[in-house]
Specification:
The protein is mainly alpha-helical and 180 residues long. It has a domain of 116 residues. It has 6 helices and 4 strands, in the order αααββββααα. The strands form 2 sheets. It has a two-stranded antiparallel ribbon with strand order 1-4. The chain has a two-stranded antiparallel ribbon with strand order 2-3. β2 and β3 form a beta hairpin. The longest helix has 24 residues. The radius of gyration is 26 Å and the shape is elongated. The two termini are 52 Å apart.
Length: 180
């Protein structure tokens, strides 16, 4: 049986959300130091995955969300994103549907004397395999993007650097007090 309730957020994300310390957290666990993302790209990533790494890793590093402990999961994200782009390219090239034909093939001789092989009649159309791959990768990427804070909903409520979050404490429940 799995854990119940919400997944705990990383401390960095809690701080960006304006975590006010109401719920005490065990501070004995050290947060891994941030990495230099350009130098720690895993060698096993293919060219498309490395391209995604170099596109997203500096942004994640700048936010403080990419650490040494996150190298492998983030590399898997980049690899999955590259596969997703490949599936999309294949759908654009081959189409979303494929014709399933009967097994009978005919060899016909044309007026010019050349023999041509014609395929059987179309029995039905079905969704191409790349569409299923694309849909499955989309679901996987959505889960991974939430984990890394790459979606608008995952970033909603994060404190903007340089601005003070005044929504904590009593003001959060009772509003601004006009009395001094």
């Amino acid at each position: 049986m799995g854990k119940r309730g919400r997944k705990p957020l990383p401390t960095t994300i809690l701080i960006q959300h304006g975590h006010n310390g109401i719920y005490k957290r065990d501070n004995s666990v050290e947060v891994s130091p941030s990495i230099t993302p350009l130098s720690n790209c895993p060698q096993w990533l293919n060219d498309e995955g490395k391209q995604k790494w170099f596109e997203f890793a500096p942004k994640m590093h700048k936010l403080g969300l990419l650490t040494d402990a996150d190298i492998e999961p983030f590399a898997r994200y980049c690899d999955t994103l590259a596969l997703w782009h490949k599936a999309r390219t294949m759908i654009e090239k081959a189409g979303m549907f494929m014709a399933i034909r009967s097994d009978s093939k005919k060899v016909e001789t044309g007026e010019d004397g050349n023999e041509t092989e014609t395929r059987g009649k179309v029995k039905y159309y079905q969704i191409a395999p790349w569409v299923n791959i694309y849909n499955r990768l989309t679901l996987i990427l959505c889960r991974m993007e939430v984990e890394f804070g790459l979606t608008p909903s995952a970033r909603a409520g994060m404190a903007i650097a340089g601005k003070k979050n005044d929504n904590g404490g009593k003001n959060r429940f009772f509003g601004q007090s006009s009395a001094g």
